[in-house]
Amino acid sequence: MIIRSKAPLRLGLAGGGSDVSPYSDLYGGNVLNATINLAAYCSIEPLHRPVMRVNAADAGVCQEVSLGTGPVNSGALLVDGVYNRVIRDYGPIPSPGFAITTYNDAPAGSGLGTSSTMVVCILKCFAEWMGIPLGDYELARLAYEIERKDLLLAGGKQDQYAAAFGGFNFMEFLPSDMVIVNPLRIKDWIISELEASMLLYFTGRSRFGGDIIAQQQEATRSGEKVAVEAMHRIKQSAIDMKLALLQGDMAGFASIMGQAWEDKKKMAGAINNPMIQEAFDVAMGAGATSGKVSGAGGGGFIMLMVPPENRVAVIKALSKLSGKVVPFQFTEKGAVAWKL
């Protein structure tokens, strides 16, 4: 028997950062995101020996460790974190040992929620194997606790819920880690127009957003006026963009995205850099109207709004840089698992 799982990566369309504590605890957060046809993958194969054989291509780990009654440390941080939490909360695995393989369609630090999506994906695979009845909320909440509380990795809450639920979602983040996910029913023609009007450009450089997130958290704790007011506007942009999206107002959608990017750059100095700015300048010069970095900033993927008639010109202009345009489509499905 083999157990497999898949969880979609997401684009953070608006409101990103307002889902990060302490801002969400003090003021509440709003995020608009959507999953795309890039994903994280996991496979588990039961073994008759008491070992965990890890092949985590996304983490660069290929290792075999012995299994006992206690926690494991294979060097694959996310795999270890999920396994240790699962055996603690739900008891032993159904076989003496297992082989686990994970990989991702996008590199770590790309701004598409890769790490959090991978945690959801691994957890979904274990839940399928062990018969753990986790709904979408329970799956996302447990993945969040593993990543943020067990492993102490910096970040927010939106990625886990996007991976678990899938589709276009307007999310509300409240004190005490309460999350409300509002799935949006977007007309097919609006999704098609958005896909025609958006480019996803990978800068070629991954970044790890812990330092940027730490700066944002400190700005909130210290009450830094410019940063906190910018985050208030970013939070509001999720509400405004949701309305523009539901109405199919691409011009309004693009304008909101552009203003949100200006506000985001006020949150921490490392969010923008010459490489990112060059990509923006080249794209705007070729006919793009606005854009923003997906995720914490500093690198990874840039979302660009481009009138469809300018699409080819913008792609040609960006092809002269070191990054690349990555084709994508929006998807409706969240994390899934199955057995072979």
Ends apart, CA distance between termini: 6 Å
CATH 2nd-level architecture of the largest domain: 2-Layer Sandwich
Helix content: 40-55%
CATH class of the largest domain, named: Alpha Beta
The number of domains is 2
Main beta sheet strand tally, sense and closure: 8 strands, mixed
Secondary-structure element order, N to C: EHEEEHEHHHEEHEHHHHEEHEE
Mean pLDDT, nearest integer?
A: 92
Shape: globular
Briefly note the CATH topology name of the largest domain.
Answer: Ribosomal Protein S5, domain 2
Specify the number of helices: 11
Instruction: Report the uncertain regions.
Output: none
* Radius of gyration computed on alpha carbons: 20 Å
Class by helix and strand content? alpha+beta
How much beta, percentage-wise? 15-25%
Strand segment count: 12
In short:
With 340 residues, the protein is of the alpha+beta class. The chain has helices spanning 23-27, 77-90, 114-130, 136-150, 158-165, 188-197, 210-221, 225-247, 250-264, 274-286, 311-318; strands spanning 3-14, 29-47, 51-56, 61-66, 97-104, 168-174, 178-183, 198-202, 290-293, 301-305, 324-325, 336-339.
Q: Describe it for me?
A:
This protein is α+β, with helices and mostly antiparallel strands and 340 residues long. α2 (77-90) packs across α4 (136-150), α4 runs antiparallel to α5 and α8 runs antiparallel to α9 (250-264). The chain folds into two domains: 3-186, Ribosomal Protein S5, domain 2 (2-Layer Sandwich), CATH 3.30.230; 188-325, GHMP kinase, C-terminal domain (Alpha-Beta Plaits, 2-Layer Sandwich). The strands form two sheets. Strands 1, 2, 3, 4, 5, 6, 7 and 12 form an eight-stranded mixed β-sheet that branches. Strands 9-10-8-11 form a four-stranded antiparallel β-sheet. A hairpin with a 4-residue loop joins β3 and β4. It is globular and about 60 Å long. It has eleven helices and twelve strands. The model has no long low-confidence stretch (mean pLDDT 92). The N and C termini lie close together (6 Å).
